[in-house]
Structure formats: C-alpha cells, structure tokens
Protein: Phospho-2-dehydro-3-deoxyheptonate aldolase
Amino acid sequence: MSYTAPISDLHIAHDELLPEPRALREALPAGEAAAAHIRRSREAVRAILRGEDDRLLVITGPCSIHEPASALEYAGRLLPLAQRLQGELLVVMRVYFEKPRTRMGWKGLIYDPGLDGSGDIGQGLHEARRLLLACAAMGMPTASEILDLVTPQYYAELLTWGAIGARTVESPLHRQMASALSAPVGFKNTTYGGLAPAIDAIHVAMQPHTFPSVSLEGRAMVVTTTGNPDGHLILRGGSDGPNYQADSVARAARALRESGLPERVVIDCSHGNSSKDYARQPLVAADVAAQVAAGSTVPCGLMLESHLVEGRQDIRDGRQGLRYGQSVTDACIGWDATVQVLEGLAAAVQARRLPR
Structure:
C-alpha cells in the first residue's frame, strides 16, 4: 500500500474566515456627510500637491494606533488646532493600523487588537473602521500607510491620504495597488535613502494595471485600474543620512524634474531624518519651516509622529499596565511640542506670503 505525503499547507497551524469587506462596510457604513468630508479633504490635498494651494499639508499623529480611546482624544485635541491654523495648514491625522517590522514585534491594531498575540484580525478591522468613521464624523481627515494587499478593502475608502512605506516602495504589488487607491498616495524613499525607487513607484502607480485582488464579497477577482495621478515623493532619510536639509530637498526636486514630475515633496520629520530620536523631530520641522519662510515651495508637506504623551513604552502583558496616550511602537513627541511645531509651520507659511 502506497502512502503519499501531503505537499500543501505544511506550515499552516490554523485558518478562519474573515467577514466579507461588504459586510463590514454595511455594518459600519459611511454616510453621505462622512463621504462628502472625505471628498473635500482629498481635493484639498490634491490642490496642495499641485501647487494650487500654498498651505502646507501636515500629517501628524501616533506612530501606530494601539488604543482607540486615546486616538480619539488626540483627534479631539487636534481638530480645534487644525481649525485655528487652517489658513496656513491642512492638518490630517496619522491613523496607522499596520506596523511594518524589520524582524518581529507587535504588528498593529488590525493584526493584534488585544496586544497579546491573539491575532483577532476580524476584531482589528472592526476597530479600525470604527475609529476612521468617528474621525470623519467629527471632521478630522485621516491618513494611513497601506501595507497589506487585502485589508484596504475594509477601510481604505475612508482615508484622505495614503502612504507606501520605505520597505514596500520597491514592491510591484504595492505599486499596482496604489494605482487603484482613490486617495492621493505618498511614496517614501527606501530605508537606505534611495530616491529612484520611490520616483519609479510614482510613475508605475500613475499607469493602468490589471491584477488579481479580493472583491467586496470576498471573492477572487481581476481589477483593471486607470492609474493614480496623485502620487508624490516623501523624504524620510535613510541609513545614508537625513534628507530634509535644503541641499537634499534641492537634489530631490532636481530628480523629480528630470523625471517629468512636479517638484513637490513631503518631508517625514521622523525615521532617518530624526536619526530615530523623537526629540529631534521639532528640529527637523524648524529647518523645513525656515526653508518655507525663505520662499521655497518644494516642501509641500510634513509628517510628524506625535501622541498625547511623549516617548514610548513596551508591551509587557497585553493592555495591562500601559500608560494612556503613549506610543507602543516608535517614540513620539508629546502634545505640547506638537502644538509648537504646527504653530511654527503656520508662521513659516505666513512669512512666505510676504512681499519680497
């Protein structure tokens, strides 16, 4: 009697069905008021990217969301600040649900909402969508990194802005996916600081693509896109050093011009640009603000990692013992520092508007 050893699913320990994307959307629907807010916010971002609006786009918020309650408190504080500075800044809240990892670690609210390794992705998707809807209801635009190729069907229509990160900017699959997204998308330079892969990604995402995906009913399907015309470059520094300074910004502008793209960049004040020291983010923002005040129009936006409480903390026993409002991933600047940075950026825009 012959025996045939199995050749599939050799490393699968467990599987379970997720709800269909349409089912989650129907359970937590976006009403017309929220949809209108998202449409307006996206158009405002596009106007800044095209140079039709001289304000700065500022994307600020926690490194990643682990605690929806403190994220909503942050949004509640950010909204009146954004409204006060809206003549100079378009403020969008950073609401990141997936955390890319070089090796291992907590992977984000969608993947592990309990912070305990239980991996209840269905619950994570519910919490993520509820948070985005709550922000939309209060009038707070939101931004997130698009990391997974399946989960965007559950929530991406609620985003004002999206990002493709430094670890995935060279991925053909992420470039194809970006071509289908409805929101403007920023592409970060690579972890080593390379601009060319991000510029290539912008061009690729602008083109039509045909690729397999998952439908709102959870079935395999083929998607044909028209391309996303609102891709842009994010300077986040790298292992070869920061790239927020005027000479680096000028080099990026030249590379964009030579590639036939608008000379507009968003500058990430964290990551390689801060040498992974959260306390340096205000210094990076101040340098960029000085460039803006001197008349430069190449920096059209900034990114900040910011939370209610500065610094970071380790996850030790799920949610037990965590300090409310403090990051569990990358360290963030605190609320008071955030206010000072945004006020400084607004003053820089005002200075740029003065006659010369």
Notes: The CA atoms of residues 313 and 323 lie 8 Å apart. DSSP finds ten helices and twelve strands in the chain. The mean pLDDT is 95. Residues 32-49 form the longest helix (18 residues).
